[in-house]
Design brief:
With 82 residues, this protein is mainly α. The chain has one domain: lambda repressor-like DNA-binding domains (434 Repressor (Amino-terminal Domain)), CATH 1.10.260.40. Helices cover 63% and strands 7% of the residues. A two-stranded antiparallel sheet has the order 1-2. The longest helix is centred in the C-terminal third of the chain and has 14 residues.
Amino acid sequence: MIRMRLGHLLLDRDMKLKDLAEQAGIAVNNLSILKTNKARAIRFSTLEALCRVLQCSPGDLLEYLPGEHGRAATEDLEQEDV
């Protein structure tokens, strides 16, 4: 499972989601989906904008957590390829 660490970075920088949205040019509702880990994908342009505003690297935003959720998602993808 890959998890976004957006909430942690916002806390570290004492920044609100609304402020990030304005500076990055991304809708607040889209950032909220990322922050709550409900997104199934992220565009590189979105990742780049987040990194630019938060002054971080993609590795600071994304965290890999091995476990059941990751295996289930992989199995779903394998079944779709058939």
